[in-house]
């Protein structure tokens, strides 16, 4: 009887140990996700502050300066204000679609960050179909905008949702063809493999030099996917009041702006990964082999350097996107569709055919 009691206690202690291990495993699995979400949130706040400062400089005005030093807390203050505002629902609209739409727009973009390599092996999920997963997930965001426009029971909102869907389809195809060309050059769809392929020759190994036409098409298409000027027709205030977000207020209204800046940040990160060498220092081995390989040693310092390089390249591209917004006028809807279907699509197809031909000839 004593032996049985001892065995039962041993079984109970073993089961408690296993349950603790499972809990610790779940916690360790959630920590990288929470750190990534925190980093993305800080990145969005920095983008909002940068856009206000850059736009103020272009328009020769002061910009934010009261909320925190240099106005860096202005975006946080705006988000807090929206959080406490009242959420209004349209009386004759579809409240389910109206409420779900902003969440789909934000979540579909957030999932894309899981395949971004910020440094050497510093990635949440290194998948063999990484770049195509990003395209598949990001294509869900216009569905959320269309749901928001339809659920609002407002003609301006519905037209904005339809424009968002039409614009996304028009520019997603050229963008996908450019990504496919990069995948052919790298012989992989993994974002980590694409970056490592560019690291052989430093600065001259960037896909920017091997795919200059694809880079320009990707740049234009990513701006259109983010609905940035001159492609912000789904929310053109002169025509549609505020487009698909006309009937929204409070935090739901803020979610659309969060989705817009998240999309801009993920597009800039993919430009860095696909065309600008990712986390690499971009110094050829001939000039500095020790410095060139410092971020591939797996140490903490190398990882931090890799993250810093990735973010520096990303925010350089963000500066170009923000300056474009305050420089070019808005296109008409027919001009936007003509640019996508009559120019970018044939050119991206030709670029893909040339890339395929060169790859076949090099075998």
Automatic annotation (TrEMBL):
The chain crosses the membrane at residues 26-50, 97-116, 122-148, 255-280, 300-322, 343-361. One of its GO terms (biological process) is photosynthesis, light reaction. The keyword Transmembrane helix applies. Its main location: membrane. Keywords: Chloroplast, Membrane, NAD, NADP, Plastid, Plastoquinone, Quinone, Thylakoid, Translocase, Transmembrane, Transmembrane helix. One of its GO terms (molecular function) is quinone binding. It is found in: Cell membrane; Membrane; Plastid, Chloroplast thylakoid membrane. It catalyses: a plastoquinone + NADH + (n+1) H(+)(in) = a plastoquinol + NAD(+) + n H(+)(out); a plastoquinone + NADPH + (n+1) H(+)(in) = a plastoquinol + NADP(+) + n H(+)(out). GO terms for cellular component: chloroplast thylakoid membrane; plasma membrane. It is a multi-pass membrane protein. The keyword Iron-sulfur does not apply. Its EC number is 7.1.1.-. NDH is composed of at least 16 different subunits, 5 of which are encoded in the nucleus. NDH shuttles electrons from NAD(P)H:plastoquinone, via FMN and iron-sulfur (Fe-S) centers, to quinones in the photosynthetic chain and possibly in a chloroplast respiratory chain. The immediate electron acceptor for the enzyme in this species is believed to be plastoquinone. Couples the redox reaction to proton translocation, and thus conserves the redox energy in a proton gradient. Belongs to the complex I subunit 1 family. This is NAD(P)H-quinone oxidoreductase subunit 1, chloroplastic. It comes from Salvia sclarea (Clary sage).
């Amino acid at each position: 009887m004593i032996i049985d009691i001892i065995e039962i206690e041993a079984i109970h202690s073993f089961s408690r140990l296993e349950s603790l291990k499972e809990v610790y495993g779940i916690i360790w699995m959630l920590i990288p996700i929470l750190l990534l979400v925190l980093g993305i949130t800080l990145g969005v706040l920095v983008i909002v502050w940068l856009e206000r400062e850059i736009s103020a400089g272009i328009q020769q005005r002061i910009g934010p300066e009261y909320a925190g030093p240099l106005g860096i807390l202005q975006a946080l203050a705006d988000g807090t204000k929206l959080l406490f505002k009242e959420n209004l629902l349209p009386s004759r609209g579809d409240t389910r679609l109206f409420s779900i739409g902003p969440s789909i727009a934000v979540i579909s973009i957030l999932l894309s960050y899981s395949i971004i390599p910020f440094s050497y092996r510093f990635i949440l999920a290194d998948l063999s179909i990484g770049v195509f997963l990003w395209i598949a997930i990001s294509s869900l965001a216009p569905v959320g905008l269309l749901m928001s426009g339809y659920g609002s029971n407002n003609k301006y909102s519905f037209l904005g949702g339809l424009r968002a869907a039409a614009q996304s389809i028009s520019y997603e195809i050229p963008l996908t063809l450019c990504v496919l060309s990069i995948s052919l050059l790298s012989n992989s769809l993994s974002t980590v493999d694409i970056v490592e392929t560019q690291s052989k020759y430093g600065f001259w190994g960037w896909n920017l030099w091997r795919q200059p036409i694809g880079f320009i098409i990707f740049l234009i298409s990513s701006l259109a996917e983010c609905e940035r000027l001159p492609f912000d027709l789904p929310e053109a205030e002169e025509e549609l009041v505020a487009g698909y977000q006309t009937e929204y207020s409070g935090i739901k209204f803020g979610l659309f702006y969060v989705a817009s800046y998240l999309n801009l940040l993920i597009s800039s990160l993919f430009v860095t990964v696909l065309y600008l060498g990712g986390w690499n220092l971009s110094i050829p081995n001939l000039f500095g082999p020790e410095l060139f390989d410092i971020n591939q040693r797996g140490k903490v310092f190398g990882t931090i350097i890799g993250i810093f390089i990735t973010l520096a390249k990303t925010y350089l591209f963000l500066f170009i996107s923000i300056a474009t917004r305050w420089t070019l006028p808005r296109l008409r809807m027919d001009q936007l569709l003509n640019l996508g279907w009559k120019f970018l699509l044939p050119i991206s197809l030709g670029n893909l055919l040339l890339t395929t031909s060169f790859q076949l000839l090099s075998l």
